[in-house]
Amino acid sequence: MNKFEQNVQSKRNDAVDSGVGFAVSFVFFTAIFVIGTVIELLGK
Q1: According to the model, what pLDDT value does residue 43 have?
Q2: Where are the transmembrane segments (predicted)?
Q3: Rounded-to-integer distance, Cα 43 and Cα 38, Å
Q4: Consecutive sets of 10 residues in the chain, 44 residues long: mean pLDDT of each?
């Protein structure tokens, strides 16, 4: 093992971090879509 494998800063599972990142980005883009749709419907 090299020195970076011996001194790990975070031992958390990468899948959990990936899932959280996906969920946050999904919620963000969904909110943008909903806001845009509401603005479009109010403009008619």
Answers
A1: 87
A2: 20-42
A3: 9
A4: 79 90 98 97 89
Side chain identity at 4, as an amino acid letter?
Answer: F
Cα distance between residue 36 and residue 9, in whole Å: 41
What's residue 30's pLDDT?
98
Q: Cβ-count burial of 27 within 10 angstroms (0-12 exposed, 13-18 middle, 19+ buried)?
A: exposed
Tokens representing residue 30 in the block = 């969904």
Question: What is the CB-side half-sphere exposure of residue 23 using CA atoms within 13 A?
Answer: 6
DSSP 23: H
